[in-house]
Amino acid sequence: MHNLNLTALFPEPPPDRMRGTYKSSACTDAERVFSDNLGVVESLSMVPGVAFMTGEDWGHALSDAMREKNCTDSQRSDVQQKAEENWNYRDARDWEERRKEFLGGVALTEKAACMNGREYGRKALHSLLRSLITQSWSAYELLAEMLIIGCKEKHPTLFSNGILAKRHSVRNGTALPKSFEDVFSDNQISAAAWSSDIKGHALLRHLLIHLQGKVDKSHVDQRQSAPAVTEWDAYKEGDEILLDGELVRRLIDRTTRGGYALLDAVSNWVNART
User: Which residue range(s) make up the domain with 170?
Assistant: First the structure.
């Protein structure tokens, strides 16, 4: 049983997501949706810690209320009202003040889930890590799709009629780089759209969706083709790639940087031609 290391999902300082306005509205629109979807991923990662911290706060608030009212009935209306007041006071504190409690809640959630006979809890946390990988990949995939569709719609004079009429898919690792090469024919854009980091994220997401994270021959072959992915070299055919907070944080950050690199490359391409 490996350590899930969930607290590694929350570095200090927290990851910075840019939010800018580009000359092309196609890029601005794509960036806005990308940033919003990354925010959803970050919020999803916080669920175990927030749930634990909130439950603990309510327990303290209710216990204090029962003591203050000298009452053993936790459901009595005046006790519940006082508990809500106590909880609101605790919950309204500044996030920086609460960060340590939050991280403690994350650690305790993982500890409880790793106890004997708590396989359901550990499975839930593992599913969360898996969801963070798939959701952050979906954010990038949608960014790529919006850039291609948006640029063709907003700047039709930059493309041939054949390119405008063609449907360019980004929904798999083969189609995405080919579509960007076909639409933009630009080395910088192609390199950004399908870098080693982006490809590595896509390969792991594919394994998780289709093979429960277990390496197959296709995965080994694909990570060796350009751009090469060395992240998983220690894993051979039949091995399961083990997920933890550090790995997931690394993937999210790389794909975030890769998404903004792609935005900049497409924006520069459009700006140079308009």
Answer: 23-46+119-271
